[in-house]
Design goal:
43% helix; alpha/beta; globular; 3-stranded parallel β-sheet; 3-stranded mixed β-sheet
């Protein structure tokens, strides 16, 4: 066991040094997800939860739904017959690598991809940033709103906002702010079928006081404001259509 643990630790160190923004995980199902009802040779999950068998943690995996859907669509277009699951249940075959290498089920997709990528950019920019310079990061409305299956996403967005407040004090007179968009009409959702995309937008819009999602241009204005207003620092600018007060 000591030799196995040492090898896992070595892999963990290599992965941490590489700091991947996205991890594509291949694993056997062990029949736990499909229970012999449906046994495709390959299946792509656009959302997944771990059942918590053999001492592994149960819970939601942080899956980039639009990207997973686009991957499935690309494979199907190339004649590769894959199944797609929108509520995949996985067992220790998936959970063990995520726990042993990344420390949990959801950490890699959002923590490395959204928090640490921006944090590294700040560190790299500092030597080149003028004393009156400004940096604006991106969090999200999930930092303070409650949404189904968004626990990891919420935590990472909240971490970005906490980091902005701390850095604004540490790096003054340089200014640090964050923009927290709600759901925005971008190419992120183009991988969905037109019907699925329309249904998704309607459901989100119904929960927003302005009864629609944001345009990219409206969100961009918040970044411009953060950059141009010289007396704004340590702030989070919400562009959510009032979602946080809904």
């Amino acid at each position: 066991m000591a030799e196995i643990d040492a090898q896992i630790e070595a892999v963990r160190d290599r992965v941490r040094a590489f700091a991947p923004e996205l991890v594509v995980l291949f694993a056997p199902d062990h029949f736990n997800g499909f229970f012999y009802d449906l046994m495709p040779p390959f299946c792509i999950g656009t959302a997944a939860s771990a059942i918590g068998d053999f001492g592994t943690v149960a819970g939601e995996l942080s899956v980039p739904t639009a990207l997973a859907s686009a991957c499935a669509a690309s494979l199907l277009e190339q004649g590769i017959d894959v199944a797609v699951s929108h509520r995949m249940r996985v067992d220790h075959g998936f959970a063990n690598p995520l726990q042993d290498i990344f420390g949990g089920l959801a950490e890699v997709a959002y923590c490395n991809g959204k928090f640490f990528s921006q944090y590294r950019v700040v560190k790299a920019a500092l030597p080149h940033l003028a004393s009156g310079g400004t940096i604006t990061l991106t969090s999200g409305v999930a930092s303070r709103g409650t949404m189904a299956n968004h626990s990891a996403i919420s935590a990472v967005n909240a971490a970005i906002e906490a980091c902005v407040r701390q850095l604004a004090k540490e790096l003054a007179p340089r200014r640090l702010n964050a923009v927290a968009p709600g759901v925005t009409a971008t190419t992120t959702y183009d991988a969905m079928t037109p019907a699925a995309k329309e249904d998704f937008v309607k459901k989100i819009a119904a929960k927003v006081p302005l009864q629609r999602i944001a345009s990219a241009e409206e969100v961009a204005l918040a970044y411009i404001f953060a950059m141009k207003s010289g007396y704004v620092s340590g702030s989070v600018i919400d562009v959510s259509g009032g979602q946080l007060v809904a």
